[in-house]
Amino acid sequence: MLAVLLAACTPTHPFVQTTTTSSSVVSTPHVTSPTDIPTVSTPGFDGDFITPDGLACAVGGDRSVDCAGALPGVQPGVVRVRMGTGTGEPAGYYRVLDTHPRVTGAQRLEVGRQVAKYGVVCRAESGPITICDNGKQSLTIGSGKTVLGDRGLVLPDGVPRPYDFVVSEVEYDGHGPKGIERMFTLASGLRCSILTYSGGSIACLGKLPGFTGGTGYVSVSNVPGNPKGVGAGTMNPPRGEVKRLPPGDSVYGYGNQGTCMALMGGGVACGFFGGTKSSGFVAANGRTWTFGM
């Protein structure tokens, strides 16, 4: 197997471009202590509320928060943002509404007040700014931006955060032996696959940037013994049409295991993300390299 190219690759974030000089990045957006803010007393409160600027939000039993409406600082067409650590929809931005938030009869969260439900605390501060936190992830909405944070996620320079992308509403599954394989193409001509069930692999096949051996294959797996790295390989033949994943969008594997993010210029970043144990690959800006392997 050919050696992995370890040169850094500049990330493409659809919402926020950050510049870093350290070897790793920990996402720690500013969150002030809520201890001195009184708790809203709402009889029968079920986790739904309206933010001071009119967004409809719902707190879920999986410690998630969904907020929908005119979100500030997001791509055109984005109508919903989700913070979550459970097994439901992945955290990120959405162009489609869901059954959440259910806010019929919900009360407005006034500035200087907070609500707490299912291990999540949401509070409204002057600006107005709404901040939600579940102990691991945070969501900040206001002052012209919408920001998802994860204080435990550590990524090397050049690897974009998966929840900075729009979770695609397009169905990319239907491929593979059981029809659960996600498969897509990129503007560069690469064809990529996410095949997961109880673990699995992610791979891209085609003319990899910086790879001089013809058709290249790059892969990552969280199953011991499965191939990973850059070299040669094969992929399951597609079943029918393989759809294009546009820049700024992401797609997740079965059960939200593994994700790929389409970058500008036909690039891609894929991996299994979580805490300090993330692993994957980036193929963009003339280079293909891996991390966490």
Structural write-up:
Helix content is 0%, strand content 37%. With 293 residues, it is mainly beta. Mean pLDDT is 83; it is low at 1-35.
What secondary-structure arrangement, pairings included, does this model have?
Layout: E1 24-26, E2 48-50, E3 56-59, E4 65-68, E5 80-83, E6 92-94, E7 114-117, E8 120-125, E9 129-133, E10 137-142, E11 145-150, E12 154-156, E13 166-167, E14 182-185, E15 191-197, E16 199-206, E17 216-221, E18 229-231, E19 243-244, E20 249-252, E21 259-262, E22 268-272, E23 279-284, E24 287-291
Parallel strand pairs: 13-20, 14-19
Antiparallel strand pairs: 1-12, 2-3, 3-4, 4-5, 5-6, 7-8, 8-9, 9-10, 10-11, 14-15, 15-16, 16-17, 17-18, 20-21, 21-22, 22-23, 23-24
Question: Which keywords apply here?
Answer:
293 residues; mainly beta; 2 domains; 6-stranded mixed β-sheet; 0% helix
Quick summary:
This protein is an all-beta fold.
Summarize the main sheet: 6 strands, mixed
Quaternary state of this entry equals single chain
Using the alpha-carbon principal axes, give the shape: elongated
How many separate structural domains? 2
The value of Rg in angstroms is 20 Å
Mean pLDDT comes to 83
Distance between the termini: 14 Å
* Count of separate DSSP helical elements: 0
Percent in strands: 35-45%
Strand line-up in the sheet with most strands: 13-20-21-22-23-24
**What letter string, H or E per element, gives the SSE order?**
EEEEEEEEEEEEEEEEEEEEEEEE
Q: What is the helical fraction, as a range of percent?
A: under 10%
